[in-house]
Amino acid sequence: MIKPNYFYLMALLTTIIGLLPKVVSSQESKIINPDNSHQYFLTDIMSWQEAKILAEKLGGYLVTINDSQENEWLVKTFIKQDTDFLWIGLTDFQEEGRFIWSNDQEVTYINWSEGEPNNNPLQGGEDFAVLNGFNNPFKRLVGTWSDAPEKARLRGIVEIPLSN
Ligand SMILES: [Ca+2]
Ligand SMILES: [Ca+2]
Fold first, then answer.
1. Whole-number Å distance between alpha carbons of 103 and 45
2. Beta strands in 39-120 (DSSP E)
3. How far is the CA of 124 from the centre of ligand 1 (A)?
4. Which of 15, 96, 132, 163 is the most buried (most CB within 10 A)?
């Protein structure tokens, strides 16, 4: 069942949460993926664009998922029972229907949910990809991807390659 007001409600809730003092920064808990030795962490709740800018400031990028192994590791590591969606680096913001990684890496693997990306017109279009968690309201399979609207406020997955 489609809930068109979901993202609006999430944005409202996020605004309220944003007014509360932050106790712990999620940036403090970076995790290393043994397959590629890259560091990953979750941002606080924010827009895709804000998460992208934060990732780049920290020497990384919004996660690029290059194969099924990386996708599975991300699910195992970052998806909890209450996770709805997490931002990933894929976007068709520049050209509708042509999804690219925001750091210009080649798209070598995709894992869209059935029926996605749908650029949902009820959301005013959708140009920013998410990794679906257990609590996603559209009942997408956990670990598959959907496109979501710019107005959504979510945590994002940042990937930082080794610097040495
Ligand atoms: Ca789109
Ligand atoms: Ca969608």
1. 21
2. 39-42, 61-62, 85-91, 100-101
3. 10
4. 132
Q: Taking the model in full, what pTM does it have?
A: 0.83
pLDDT tens profile 49-96? 999 999 999 999 999 999 999 999 999 999 999 999 999 999 999 999
What distance in angstroms lies between residue 22's CA and the mean position of ligand 1's atoms? Answer: 33
Residue list, CB under 5 A from ion ligand 2: 116, 118, 120, 126, 146-147
How far is Cα 72 from Cα 69, in angstroms, rounded to an integer?
5
List, as ranges, residues with CB under 5 A of the ion ligand 1. Answer: 92, 119, 127
Residue ranges in the chain modelled with pLDDT below 70: 1-4, 17-28, 163-164
Residue that is written with structure tokens 């309220």 in the block = 16
100 strand-pairing partners: 91
Determine the Cα–Cα distance for residues 102 and 117; give it in Å rounded to an integer.
17
Pairing of strands 128-132, 31-32: unpaired
Give the domain 42-160 fold.
Answer: Mannose-Binding Protein A; Chain A (3.10.100)
Residue type, 142: V
